[in-house]
Design a protein that fits this description.
single chain; 378 residues; alpha/beta; TIM Barrel; eight-stranded parallel β-barrel; 12 helices; 31% helix; globular
Length: 378
């Protein structure tokens, strides 16, 4: 290995006491590959197994915690104990390859698909339709959750954590990003409530922080060994009103006080600049790292393809670098960097590579029918 890439392969011990072998993470990716009932399929095992060798941390595709939280076809589930058997198989496969296995837990909220949820009814913090709904295949106005239903959802995230523990995962990641339910409660666009779950910034943080507390309690009650708890968030929204960078800095201050193992920033582009910030148009990742990076490890992600791009990202000060689409394109990324073959890394998806890359039809077709999602050869 070229010695300059050594910082990517240094071990790190998280707050829980769990040590990761290196700083490389596979980001949670929508793969459309679970069975219709949410159980783990052979296809998703094969797909993930092909591209996780050598990583320090593997974060799975998001698993819904209640039936009305299902947001896309082929999404995995962690909403009932019957899921545990398949999830055990998934966790075992990941750990056999040497990585720590983290299950991302999720609820789609107003971005759940009516065709996939009971009675076709979608729910959210408030009865406000998503402006960008078409991008998610979603149409329709959600019903505002009642107070007791919000409490039940907090409990559901704790129960999902219990199931992840019983399935043998090393941790969970709370999905508070990308416009889904936890994000919706934090957003002034989707949360127009005037009760304890919404209103000013502090009350809009109530649901995200309650979920964190429920997850942490489940770990305390059920985990017999160290267990990772991470949180993923999107730092800004384009909508007005919407989450601003300054809002997010307040949220991550609160999250940093929750003894989490990491914070995971959801970005399409690692170096993207803040839209609306009193601190100027600086890269979001820099603002986040400066604010909390000395208190909790930060995972950065977004259009990182080459070894040099990963190294530059790491040199920003973040603790961990996540690769998503790039590991679909180049499953042997880690091995090639370790062996000094970084010049051989593929960064564009070849149209004849489906079989070689072990990409099942549902994901392959989704990629080919979504121009701009992946870099694809002309």
């Amino acid at each position: 290995m070229n010695p300059k890439y050594q910082p990517l392969f240094e071990p790190i011990t998280l707050r829980s006491g769990i040590q990761l072998d290196n700083r490389l993470v596979i980001a949670p990716m929508t793969h459309f590959l679970s069975n219709p009932d949410g159980s783990v399929s052979d296809d998703e095992i094969r797909f993930l197994s092909r591209r996780i060798k050598g990583l320090g941390l593997v974060i799975t595709a998001c698993a819904y915690v209640t039936p009305e939280g299902k947001a896309f076809h082929g999404q995995p589930a962690v909403d009932r104990d019957e899921n545990i058997e398949g999830l055990t198989r998934l966790a075992s496969m990941i750990k056999e390859q040497g990585a720590k296995a983290v299950l991302q837990i999720h609820h789609g909220g107003r971005l759940s698909l009516p065709a996939l949820v009971p009675n076709g009814e979608i729910v959210s913090a408030s009865a406000v339709e998503a402006e960008r709904a078409a991008a998610f295949g979603e149409t329709g106005k959600p019903r505002a959750l009642e107070d007791a239903e919000v409490e039940a959802l907090v409990t559901a995230f704790g129960e999902a954590t219990r199931r992840a523990i019983e399935a043998g995962f090393d941790g969970v990641e709370i999905h508070g990003a990308n416009g889904y339910l936890i994000h919706q409660f934090f957003s002034p666009h989707s949360n127009r409530r005037d009760d304890r779950w919404g209103g000013d910034l502090e009350r809009r943080m109530a649901f995200p922080l309650a979920v964190v507390d429920a997850v942490k309690k489940a770990v305390a009650d059920h985990a017999k060994q160290p267990f990772i708890v991470g949180y993923r968030f999107s730092p800004e929204e384009p909508e007005t009103p919407g989450i601003t960078m300054d809002d997010t800095l307040v949220l991550i201050d609160a999250l940093a006080g929750k003894d989490l193992d990491y914070l995971h920033v959801s970005l399409q582009e690692f170096w993207s600049e803040a839209r609306r910030s009193t601190d100027g148009n600086r890269p979001r990742i820099e603002l986040i790292q400066e604010r909390v990076g000395n208190q909790v490890p930060v995972i950065g992600v977004g259009s990182i393809h080459t070894a040099d791009e990963a190294l530059k990202a790491k040199e920003s000060g973040i603790a961990l670098v996540a690769l998503g689409r790039e590991l679909v394109i180049e499953p042997d990324w880690v091995e090639k960097v370790r062996e000094g073959r970084e010049s051989e890394i593929e960064t564009v998806l070849k149209k004849d590579a489906q079989e070689r890359l072990v990409i099942p039809d549902p994901l392959w077709n989704a990629i080919m029918n979504a121009p701009g999602w992946f870099p694809v050869e002309a």
